[in-house]
Amino acid sequence: MNKIISILGIIIIFSAGFFILRNLDAPSNEPYVEERITNGTQIIMTLNDAREIANSSHCVKNGDLSGFHIYNPSTETYWFDLDIESEGCNPACVIDVHTRMATINWRCTGLINK
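RE: above sequence
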């Protein structure tokens, strides 16, 4: 009897795992909601707005946006990683949601490999 319960338990666990893995790639029924920054009632900036500002700024003069981004709520800025080679640095294009200005933050460590 204990063997049957153990076998049934294993079958249930494998079935649940198979169902979960099978549905990972299934499209979501929830509508896509674009990331947006608001002041409570009014949309200040969307992720697409910030990406457009970055792509039309001096940030992409020497390289492209890498695709990774993050929003920093403390500074109210979007940060887009840049594909720019600079020894000891990891540059990002920073977009201020209020001024809509783009700047490059080089994020340098100060260490230079010799």
